Amino acid sequence: MVDAPGDDRWTNAGSVVLGIETSCDETAAACVRGGGDVLSSVVSSQVDLHARYGGVVPEIASRAHNELIIPVTARALFEAGLDGEDVDAVAATTGPGLIGALLVGVSAAKALALAWDVPFISVNHLEAHLYAGFLEEPELKFPLVVLLVSGGHTMLVLMEDHGRYRLLGQTLDDAAGEAFDKVARFLGLGYPGGPAIDSVAMSGDPEAIRFPRSMMDDGLDFSFSGLKTSVVNHVRNNPSVSTEDVAASFQAAVVDVLVAKARRAAQQHGATALALGGGVAANSLLREQFLTACTEDGMHAFLPSRAMCTDNAAMIASAGWYRLRLDGPTSLDCGADPNLRLSTLPA
Amino acid sequence: MSASTVRARTTSVDQTRDLAAALAELARPGDLLVLVGDLGAGKTAFCQGFGRGLGVDEQITSPTFAIVQSYTGRLDLHHLDVYRLGQLNEALDLGLNELLDEGGVTIIEWGDMIVPVLPPDFLEVHLDLDPDADAASDEALNVRSVGLVPVGARWSARVRAVRTALAAWAVDEPGSDPTC
Prior knowledge:
A: 5-stranded mixed beta sheet; 18% strand; B: Rossmann fold
């Protein structure tokens, strides 16, 4: 085997990467040809299993991944009309995520790579989210600013080229999706918090309560912990307040900050396009305001479909194809890293 | 809370961070702190200050998603949030004893939920919203009462040092002897 970086022996337009994703509560597998042509994408969500606990329970997640990983992978191959021998490389998320959950996907991917004698590729889950946009819009041009918002992360990333990123800003405390989950739990709206608040907020007044827009004029970092505390304080002091109004006003505060900062980041760094990524990108108010802002600024906006915003394996296979091209195969000694950071250039 | 409880009061998130940073000066390898407090009480802010006191440069964020986040400083900091664990035996899978043996300091948010599987020595830190806070005053909403309860000999031996380190935020306790 030739292990030289940049070798395109495995990454030509016809090569197929099988991607596997098990970092949190979705067991997913997908086959993607040439880094962008999605042949199949199978996602088995565990949301129902975790709902009664108000969040993802790590041990339940690991056990469910164990049960689902083989049928989900087999399904992805079947839907793509492929056999194992048609797969040119196997990519898996090695972090960040829950350690027990990550290990299930990493072990399965390594076993398949070894059995089929093809390269194994370690993929950073955050890098994969950046690639989700390209799967639906191959014409996306660099430099591109991505607002990545999920339950575990909130960051603004400048993509200068494949594999070249600058971290422009990130949350200093809670992730935006985490704030949604915690506020939803506090309001008794259930899990997952994002869709619950989104739907209740539809019948509330977003201007009923003026919650703080933390760090609005202060750089490109985010802070949502103070907002969460404000919601708790407001409800404790006004027990008869309408839950709909609280949800709508809270959501408006989060979205205002996310959109303002994404917009500023794009302007400051001369981006030609702005893209959304991560589970919170499914929020309807965020999508609406993001699109309005981009139209006003004459910026190309990219809003991935709901299926591409949330965790899936097609983005893992796509990022894996580019990673294989840049770095070559990953050693089978590679483990999972729950705190893996996005490898970035100095800002 | 027992007689060895140290009581303090902070009036802003920054003060909670400063208090935690001062406490971190007393940290020793293998120390364990358990944080108890409601949503929004300032548990993550406390960890941010404590990390600053340990010389952690990296931004300390909420560990709710990953359960465990580790940082490098003068002493390493392991920051856990066990709110999402479904059953007590899952806490055993966290490898807590290994983390403690590695020589860093471990802080567990919502750690009171897993007391049965904790080692016998730790400092329990209670962060409480001021029960008398009145809606009319924004300042009052930021007030936190902080109670530090040593559990086991390891922290009991340091109560006087803790009192001294946190003197700036001390709350006078009726009948307590300030010299002990």
